[in-house]
Amino acid sequence: xxxxxxxxxxxxSDGGSAMANAIIDEAGVRVGDDRRRGRGAGINPTGRFEPLxxxxxxxxxxxxxxLPPFKTEVxxxxxxxxxxxxxxxxxxxxxxxxxxxxCEHGCVYCFARPTHSYMGLSxxxxxxxxxxxxxxxxxxxxxxxxxxxxxxxxxxxxxNTDPYQPIEKKWRIMREILEVLDAHNHPVGIVTxxxxxxxxxxxxxxxxxxxxxxxxxxxxxxxxxxxxxxxPRAATPTRRLEAMRALNEAGIPASVMIGPVIPGLNDSExxxxxxxxHAVGAKEAGYVILRLxxxxxxxxxxxLLRHYPDRYRHVMSLVRSMxxxxxxxxxxxxxxxxxxxxxxxxxxxxxxxxRRIGLNAERRKLRTDLFKAGKGxxxxxxxx
Length: 384
Known about the structure:
The protein is α/β, with parallel strands linked by helices. It contains twelve helices and ten strands.
């Protein structure tokens, strides 16, 4: 579904509120503050695969009923397999696991938002309030690790939606997955914005002793106000650094991921974030430039206009300068780091700061030689 952004933005004299109301797509306008309190997205566009779009508006007859706030709802999803494979040449892993679909953290820039369209839901507020849990994931993982010919390589978890988002406290799917990986000596790499990862230090420390586990904490900003609006239900920056310290003290390699770097908004913090991470024991670091695929672009623009209307033109101009004049370029090799002078400058700043601080001197590789395959379904058990 083609997304439409009206007035990009022509009427700056109308003020921030008028500019924010100008962000409209084919599915409707912004959702009121009372309904989306504590959420990241301000709009809830219809999924791009839907044949119809629905709009909420007042027809003048004063019959528009008050709609309730968006509440977190969780449905059970029953996939046939749990390990997702990929052959992308610009990422470092070929398999991953997503215990959940959708993410309550509500990060407004999340590149995974468009995946909710496959469920007939909105990449906007639905993505962070209508979630899917996969409680069969541990059982499916056991089954897949037992397949004849399975070759172990690091499984990445948290590359799409966060495995330690708030609903993990109740569902505990991630912990059960780690128990399976631990039992089979299978390597795992985790990316998260949540301090809940500290709950599983007992398992992760055992795995790390055998060279089977590492964690990356995503720290986008050290500014609590910016983090509060941009990542409303993720852990505060301070808590993420505390988690990084706790993991490293427990012998679990915990690195920092600056993701995403948003030009004109948080790129000035690159050096400070790296220094803060190094101070709590991080030895490795990485970064990703802001990605705005499909429906993410209008959702991010709406957020930017609501919270930082004075920076809208500057931020989007810099974003487009790194994406060949567009909001996003999905070409492999370019999508993560961008192109052009500004993207080059960010890359050099990151490299120089990391080298000065002592980060990335070595890259820790996880072991695969300890893997123990499980028993397949119907396989006869040994007598002794």
